[in-house]
Amino acid sequence: MKKRFPVKRQLQLIMRISILQIVLALSVVSTSIAFDVHAQEALTRKVSMQVQQKQVKYVLQQLGQQAGIRFVFSSRLIQSDRKVSLQVTDQPVASVLDKLLKPLGLSYEVSGENIVIQPSETGSSASSAPDQSRTEATADITVTGTVTDEKGEVLPGVSVVIKGTSKGSTTNIQGKFSMAVPTGSATLVFSFVGYLSQEVAVGNKTSINVSLKPDTKSLEEVVVVGYGEIKKSDLTGSVSSLKAEGNEDKPITSIDQLIQGRASGVQITQNSGAPGSGMTFLIRGASSVTGSNQPLIILDGYPIETDQRSLSPNTGTSFWEASTPPTNPLAAINPNDIESIEILKDASSTAIYGSRGANGVVLITTKRGKSKRDQFSYSFRTDISSLPKKIDVLRAADFIQYANEGARNSGRDSVYRAAAIPGLLANDYFWQDLIIQPSVSQDHQLSFTGGDDKTKYSVSGNYYSQEGIIKNSSFDRGSIRINLDRQVLPKLKLFGSFSGTISENRSTQQSNSNGDQSGSAITGALRFRPIASPFAAGTDDEPELSIEGNPLTLVTLGRNVARSTVVLANLKADYSLLKGLNFVINAGVNNTNAKRDNFQPFGTFAGRQNGYAYTGEASSFNFLVENTLSFNKTIARKHRINAVGGYTWQQWNNRTFGVQATQFVSEALQANNFQLASSSSIPVTTNQNWALQSVLGRFNYTFDSRYLFTLTGRADGASRLAEGNKWAFFPSIAGGWNVHNEPFMKGRTIFDELKVRASYGISGNQSIGVGSSVDRVGTTRTVVNGIILTALAPSGLGNPNLGWETTRQINVGLDVAILKSRLKLGFEAYSRNTSDLLINLTLPGSTGFTSYAANFGKVENKGIEFDADAVILDGELKWNASGNISFNRNKITNLGGIQLFGASYLSVGSIGLGQPANTALEGFPIGAFFGYQVNGVYQNADQVATGPKDPTNPTPGDIKYVDTNGDGTISVADRTIIGNPYPDYTFGITNDFRWKSLTLSIFFMGNMGQDVMNLNRHILDALTFTTGTNMRTEAWEGRWQGEGTSNYYPQARNVGNAFRGRLSNFYLEDGSFVRLKNISLAYNLPTNTVKWLRNAKVFVSATNLITWTNYKGYDPEVSANATSSLTPGVDFGTVPQYRTYSTGINLTF
């Protein structure tokens, strides 16, 4: 029978969400009313003024200063030379405005804390000069309409003028206009700063709606680069730019989800579907074997630590695993706060970050206030998620047959007697349904943005609550961000940023032996026998106990909670020394505190010793001080220089604490009182300090907008390295040619842009454990005279010669725009060579140490990238399409002649079987799959006799293994490279459609050519009943039952065999997939009748809607070891990804 998701629980969820929505809705309405009340109150203030023949703009400015009001109006609305006289004494502002504006044919409207000046109800502005050219009277018609931007949002303050006259109007706060237009051949001209003007012939139309397009040329598009900005036309490096707008209607919970599939050369793998789980983030492939492969993240100029490896205390203890901050540090950043993302990929763009730029750099810019655009926004989204696929395993009847058949094939008696079978069939549980639930999530976002010429602000708050599809798992995050910009003095600007995030991650027990993924709730649900009672934890009613135990105990009895607090604050001062010469000081602090409590009571496998508890804490504090001098100037029109130089200092302090205990006399206080435990470990604490100081510079020169040259360099000094190796220099050089600006290209209009780029440079990687260059000591226990004592003992062997990993990269690029820039194409080709790899060498046990860090070996990454953006339709129906495809080949070219177990390889990952699943071997990719090769099933005794000798003594029906070394015997020496975890290519395709107020976005992504090691099949397809575990239906139905019946799945057995103990390509599958990642439909609601509402949008969205793949597991996008990019493509007890349906609303006031 199946246990359904309780109706009571559904009602509780709905009530909880509904109540919260009502409270928030009331808050929004009351806040909006408060804004209007504030402005209305300002209109009652009394003022006194006396002016004679002053310009109208001057009078409004004086009135605004005296009353504390800001007026918003179009410059076209009021003629610059129009003068008025006004004399009032102690009169309300409303009365003064009536006296001032009515004679001018103007009126006003309250909008938030602003007062918008607009034409009076009659239509045209009386302040406009009469059209002296008109000598004949013609009848007028009233034309109304709405002006919006390219996204469908209304544009207030747009100038609407009759062509050839000065008669016109302007749009109000809702983007609407109404004006009298002569009948005949009149043409209206719509213009707004930053947008292309548009002309529309009136004819007999009485309603005209216009959508203005941004004027990209007038805006002079710039790209954020390290320590500054640069015109895109002057860029010589390889940079992918992403705008975050339009993603508010998608269930994006972390920044890496926003990037995935949308930038060429970037491979992001979602390791798990668990709430708050992380992603593996690679830019142009993996370049380090044991060091970090994660890119450097820069948030508003502040480097964010994302590599947990660099925080490792290097003490040899496992406690750190449970006390680290959340798996995904980027989950602490609210994606709704993001304005834009730049991904720096080649050496020319990353060399400015020196020793931290080898893996690429991601620059994240958050939203800041805009002058005279005060607005309050609220958005709400709710998500409903479910598992799109379940693994088909045996039900009760087939399971009993499997157990008995396996016993007979092994010469044993039946496991289940005929008389007992009817009673056993009464229990028929599909365990995946018992631990998996439909989940509900919600996201609330509030923001206030605006400012004036001197002060700009952006304040946002976010609450996100995600319920996991595994019962009793969840992720909750609350965040706040404040960005404040102030022009303090004519030459001094201050930019302040503060953000704070609190998160809590509740996860189910993922292990039954403190680190073994095979004991996760998922593997338990897949393998546990269907005839067992779900609530019989601790009993032994079956012949054999499952190695996992009852999976319900993992999700219902245990408690595993991680809490994290992240605070980031920085202040930047920008002082203009001379025109084009600025001195900038940037200082900030980043503090992270994390705590994990894990308690597994008696009844769980981990708590079998009267309970198990762990508590751990970790804190990381770092501060940054940067001083830079920038120069940006155009000389004699043709010489443009953009240069920066500076000095930076960043220092870290990390502390950790961890302790575990068993044998609790009472479980009432769980992990909150270790005094109730009779057995506990030695508490492990660490305290680490290190620093990085740097001198940097970049010089960019452009001649006549045709020839581009960039020279970059950075010298880094790291305290974590030994004397003599602390400092290194990382230079780069790049050039570019804007061919389309050459004189010989004039008149050849096919190319709107044709740019050729090339770069070469060096960057580094120093993400090694603190203290790796020095000998280390740790605690140990020893017995002296029968007494157990705690003492210090050597724990790690240092390498004083340890240095940097160095990456040299060559990049060539081509940028093309044609068809009036309706089609833009980009091409990149690169070669990255990393040398002096940071590798932990395994040492003989006789040394007393386990490993030793050293520099040797080389890795090569070569690849090409394509990008395309197209405006396919640009009429009433708009269709924009973009896509990218990336090819990368990763290969280890040198490992310094490592010899281990008779083969030249280095193990970098061991999963479950005690055998390396991923290795490093010269000539193959980092983390290539390593194991035996299979060649079908032995069909008869002759095949066994003529095959290679196998110490496991195979019989017909067993798997045949390949004697790869040809010595006639199957042994560990026959293990070889069996697969590549990295795809041959990745791609992403986005199509955006807009028709009137409707928008539709469709996003596909995929990985092709990758292999996945599906170790869940190690048990599910083994057809071995030794531990009473279940199996997949496909393997059961396709099993060998005699000669010729199967050459893939073996015979069912009831004894252990080599198949269960050998890691082979039998478990290796093609992990290629194409995924309809997201489809979103949005509608902009009409806001005519609600004056205080600027924009309202409702939307529906679906994520992970369809996945096309041949993979037998839940999902091919997976990595069981989520903390490392060196063990990719292993599926072993991982929480699967889910399908999500979302709906929500965005309101702007």
UniProtKB/TrEMBL annotation:
| Any Pfam family matching the protein | CarbopepD_reg_2
* Sequence intervals crossing the membrane: none
Q: Specify whether Amino-acid biosynthesis is a keyword of the entry.
A: no
Known PROSITE patterns for this protein?
TONB_DEPENDENT_REC_3
* Domain called Secretin/TonB short N-terminal: residue spans: 69-120
Name the UniProt key words of this record, in alphabetical order: Cell outer membrane, Ion transport, Iron, Iron transport, Membrane, TonB box, Transmembrane, Transmembrane beta strand, Transport
- Reading the lineage from the top rank, the first entry is Bacteria
- Where does the UniProt annotation place the signal sequence? none
The places in or outside the cell where this protein is found are: Cell outer membrane
Example GO biological process term?
iron ion transport
**According to its UniProt record, which protein family does this protein belong to?**
Belongs to the TonB-dependent receptor family.
This one is known as SusC/RagA family TonB-linked outer membrane protein
Organism of this sequence? Spirosoma sordidisoli
Highest lineage ranks of the organism?
Answer: Bacteria, Pseudomonadati, Bacteroidota, Cytophagia, Cytophagales
